[in-house]
UniProtKB/TrEMBL annotation:
Primary localisation category: membrane
Annotated spans, Disordered: 337-362
Compartments where located: Cell membrane
Keyword S-adenosyl-L-methionine included in the entry's annotation: no
Gene3D superfamilies: 6.10.140.1330
Alphabetic keyword roster: Antiport, Cell membrane, Ion transport, Membrane, Sodium, Sodium transport, Transmembrane, Transmembrane helix, Transport
Record flagged with keyword Nucleotidyltransferase: no
Membrane-related topology note: Multi-pass membrane protein
Name of protein: Na+/H+ antiporter
Domain Cation/H+ exchanger transmembrane: 16-416
Family affiliation: Belongs to the monovalent cation:proton antiporter 1 (CPA1) transporter (TC 2.A.36) family.
Lineage start: Bacteria, Bacillati, Actinomycetota, Actinomycetes, Micromonosporales
Source organism (scientific name): Actinoplanes palleronii
């Protein structure tokens, strides 16, 4: 495409993303589904279509998406649930690839075991973006959110490695050795982890530079690409390097970054995530026309059989896996983080894990939407790969069925299962933490007052003490209300809602007065922006009306 066509396409894509986001807000329909359907419609319109370039996706789109997801994840929770995460992101991916490969080699004529395993590796890793978006909106419990995040962050590296191995076998690569390949896989995984740790440590050393919000943004934006490229140059897993770096940096950010840097960096990443995810789902839909054109050499029976095997394995193996892992001995049990009712901690003081309930297993079974990594993986196969067009159609069918089918039904399923996070417990935990933070601040004031005796300083500290005491009293009152709540929903607080309304009205009045000064020529725009930014920060910390707190 020419630069003008590229720009026009980009503007059109952003326009569609914005409109779909508005429709999602009005209807509650998943944005991923609407964008995919829009992409399919665009594919059949006259004009230029963009085909998925695997290297482009893996180098420029996947690293920032994975990095931002890792920043928003919990390193401690994922580490606590590591057995479950490994079960889903490694063992289940391998099982899916092998079962799909066996199915193709037995029932689809002309397709080898290696080619089938390559397809299985491509369709094995779920894309957590759509599932998390719907799950959060549906109020999915935090333990399931953590599991979906952990699985989505680590399964791509497993799938891409299996795909590489199967591709070598299917194309008759010379000097291929299973033993050597297993060794390469271990080295790639371990090396990717080490590269991620190294990049995160380097970013930690740059914390002095990160005090400036613009510098912090620049460092944050280049980090995922640096981790990915360094990993690939060292012939280890660049994907794992990005994920590990993101998890560690996200864990360190509250300690090593300033408040202003965190606010600005978070806003920038939300925008990048919003646009990249939208473009990804549009690209997925656009591939339908090209994929269908490659099926003319296959019989209907072959196509139906191939698609049936692929969809059957993807849709049935996941729930079967989750059920079977619950039947394993307790020492090998697939578990989620949480406290057992009769034994809340180990002798070392760490929380024990408890197994998935039947309802949780059902929800996790339906949280396996596939996305762009599946298509990027299958398109990364060389043009002379045996039955490449048939495999690409099967991969696209899986993406379309899971993205649309599971995407549209996931929220109703979560609601039907009654799997909503206990909002009262969440609000109680936040208010307990707020109370602890205020008490720590009051203790610091006591320490400072014991060291300084200047009258002006005493007045300033006394003023601060009164403000903190008012906040502490408010949190204690809110905790009393929450302790008496007998449902999972946060009880309404007319006083709290009224206080929010008054504070918002005050901020609006201040902002309007500043604008009147600017319009009257009494305040220049530069100073208006400084003062308006102060009000914006005050407004930012106010929770939305009617939301939990």
């Amino acid at each position: 495409m020419s630069p003008e066509e590229t720009l026009l396409f980009g503007l059109g894509a952003i326009a569609v993303i914005v409109v779909v986001h508005w429709i999602t807000g009005k209807t509650g329909l998943p944005a991923a589904v609407l964008l995919t359907v829009a992409g399919i419609g665009y594919a059949y319109l006259p004009g230029v279509n963009i085909e998925i370039e695997p290297e482009l996706i893996l180098t420029f789109i996947l690293p920032p998406l994975l990095y931002n997801a890792a920043l928003d994840s919990s390193l401690l929770d994922i580490r606590r649930n590591m057995r479950t995460v490994i079960s889903l992101s490694v063992a289940l991916v391998i099982a899916t690839a092998v079962v799909v490969g066996l199915g193709f080699s037995l029932f689809v004529g002309g397709v080898t075991l290696a080619a089938g395993i390559a397809l299985g590796a491509a369709v094995a890793p779920p894309d957590p973006v759509a599932a998390l978006a719907v799950g959060r909106k549906a109020g999915l419990p935090n333990n399931l959110i953590t599991l979906i995040q952990g699985e989505g962050l680590l399964n791509d590296a497993t799938a891409l490695t299996i795909l590489l191995v199967a591709g070598k076998v299917a194309t008759g690569a010379e000097h291929f050795s299973y033993k050597a390949t297993v060794g390469e896989f271990v080295i790639a995984a371990a090396g990717g982890v080490l590269v991620g740790v190294g990049v995160a440590y380097l970013v930690r050393l740059l914390r002095v530079l990160r005090a400036d919000p613009l510098t912090a943004n620049a460092i944050s934006l280049v980090t995922p690409f640096a981790a990915y490229l360094l990993g690939e140059k060292l012939h280890v897993s660049g994907v794992l390097a990005v994920v590990v770096a993101g998890l560690i940096i996200g864990h360190d950010t509250p300690r090593y970054a300033t408040g202003a840097s965190r606010l600005q960096t978070s806003a920038v990443w939300r925008l990048i995530d919003f646009l990249l995810e939208g473009i990804v789902f549009l690209l997925i839909g656009q591939q339908m026309k090209a994929v269908l054109q490659g099926l003319t050499v296959y019989s209907v029976t072959t196509i139906v059989t191939a698609v049936g095997i692929t969809l059957g394995v993807v849709l049935l193996l996941r729930p079967l896996w989750l059920v079977l892992t619950q039947l394993l001995p307790r020492s090998l049990h697939t578990r989620l983080g949480g406290e057992d009712e009769d034994d809340s901690a180990t002798p070392e003081g760490k929380r024990k894990e408890k197994s998935l309930s039947g309802r949780e297993s059902a929800a996790m079974s339906w949280a396996g939407t596939r996305g762009v990594i599946t298509l990027a993986a299958i398109y990364s196969l060389p043009g002379n790969f045996p039955n490449r067009d048939l495999l690409a159609f099967c991969a696209f069918a899986v993406v379309l069925v899971t993205l649309v089918g599971q995407g549209l039904t996931f929220a109703p399923l979560v609601k039907w299962l009654g799997l909503r996070a206990n909002q009262t417990d969440q609000a109680r935990l936040r208010n307990e933490a707020r109370s602890a933070a205020v008490r720590a601040a009051l203790n610091v004031i006591d320490d400072i007052q014991g060291e300084h005796h200047d009258h002006v300083e005493d007045e300033a500290m006394e003023t601060m003490r009164k403000q903190l005491q008012v906040r502490l009293d408010r949190y204690r009152h809110r905790l009393d209300v929450l302790e008496q709540a007998d449902s999972s929903e946060v009880p309404p607080s007319p006083q709290y809602e009224a206080a929010l309304m008054v504070r918002q009205a005050v901020i609006d009045a201040e902002r309007e007065e500043l604008l009147r000064w600017r319009d009257a020529g009494r305040l220049d725009d530069e100073n208006l922006r400084v003062l308006n930014r102060e009000l914006d920060h005050e407004e930012l910390v106010l929770p939305k009306r009617g939301k939990t707190h």
